Amino acid sequence: MNEEMLSKTVLFKGLSKEEIHDALLALQARELLYKKDASILLAGSKTDKMGLVLEGSVRIESNDVWGNRTILSHVGPGQFFAETYAFLHNEPLLVDVVANKDSRILFLQIHILKETNAATHTWVLKLLTNLLVVTAHKNLVLSGRSFHTSPKTIRGKVLAYLNSVALQSGSHRFDIPFDRQQLADYLNVDRTALSKELGKMKTEGLITFEKNHFEIQKSADF
Amino acid sequence: MNEEMLSKTVLFKGLSKEEIHDALLALQARELLYKKDASILLAGSKTDKMGLVLEGSVRIESNDVWGNRTILSHVGPGQFFAETYAFLHNEPLLVDVVANKDSRILFLQIHILKETNAATHTWVLKLLTNLLVVTAHKNLVLSGRSFHTSPKTIRGKVLAYLNSVALQSGSHRFDIPFDRQQLADYLNVDRTALSKELGKMKTEGLITFEKNHFEIQKSADF
DNA sequence: ATGATTATGTGGCAACGGCAACATACTTCT
DNA sequence: AGAAGTATGTTGCCGTTGCCACATAATCAT
Fold this sequence. Notes:
- 2 copies of one chain form a homodimer.
- In chain A, 40% of the residues lie in helices and 23% in strands.
- In chain A, a hairpin with a 5-residue loop joins strand 4 (58-63) and strand 5.
- Chain A is built from 8 helices and 11 strands.
- The first copy, chain A, has helices at 3-6, 17-26, 83-88, 112-115, 122-149, 154-169, 180-187, 191-203, and strands at 30-34, 39-41, 50-55, 58-63, 69-75, 80-81, 96-99, 103-108, 173-175, 207-210, 213-216.
- By secondary structure, chain A is an alpha+beta fold.
- The radius of gyration of chain A is 19 Å and the shape is elongated.
- The first copy, chain A, has 2 domains: 3-124, Jelly Rolls (Sandwich), CATH 2.60.120.10; 150-216, Orthogonal Bundle (Arc Repressor Mutant, subunit A).
- The N and C termini of chain A lie far apart (47 Å).
- Chains A and B meet through helix 3 and helix 5 of A and helix 3 and helix 4 of B.
- The structure holds a DNA duplex.
């Protein structure tokens, strides 16, 4: 396991190599590989493990009985998922976690933190604090999606989403982590209607795009 | 301040009266009163205080430039808000916090937790762990709303929401914390269209309601 | 390369919902 | 009690979007 790389993640920030090594052992860290579109965690089940994406990416989604999919978020390398469920530890998952590409995932039994003696293990307090940062950020991501889906028109949703990605990337040229169907499922709209609207927005000069690369025209920053 | 009552909240669970007293001092606890509809925290500002609703209730909402309101959640007595922002502590708020009734709020400078010596203060570790439970639950609330808003028809949204409230209350008869306009803003739909759909659902025998009291007919549990 | 599979875009149609204007309760205040 | 304000429901119309069927483009496997 690469303690070097882990120390750059939010969760292990501020921990020494030795502390990380110790923590990985205590939390029973396990590495697993998943093929694209393989499901990692299933809605309705329970988990005591949180995941760290080492390579690839995963998406958090929900599939109802009628086949409607809602994508809640995309989790890239160095980011975490299921920490909420792993920590609470007997809440059934409301969502599925699916590999978006071939992925390498590190699992951590984070609930063990609650039972570990912080006095004798210097890393416990650090991990708890860092985990709080992780869940707090996750909160921001979830509220963020609310703002992307709340506009009533497709155009409104698309602009809300693209502006937010542009803001984060610090540029008006950027890639999005979704294909069309996924973007539609993230914004809770019909894919073909999304395609139509994207087309219109391109003709009107608001945006340009090709595949998953987008550019927002300056005039559109209103 | 009532340590008795506080010890029943998620955040102070497991702390002794003395620990709570100590913590309140260290976190510079302040109690404030708000009139119905007074704003407590403003989007765009930053806060280093999280709130605990002692009496009354607040709502978390977002108001865009065109006057569209989106309600993210309702926070009742004994529950917390703004813990995300208070802990991260220099993230600008994405939302407004507004008093839904006349309310008594306890504010805590929770970020002080990060700088307090856990070795000499027994309550620090407990509060950190409990705070993690709070943010984890907040995550579930936020994902929950996603499932209430993702159906494409108003009826679908209403049923998703009502079923979820029924499940939590453990009964098919329950009160909701929203008036019509607020419910519409929570579900991201037009109020009059919501009224129409509720009316239809009543005539069809799916639900009955009066003001904010609802009943789901057993046949509707599909 | 060729065919098969997947991704994206287009056209048409019906319906759901947003909006405006109004009607009818129900509160609150003096 | 009466008036003013607020909450909820109703009606009608038009636009947006969901959905279906299909076209075209891109990707993958052999």
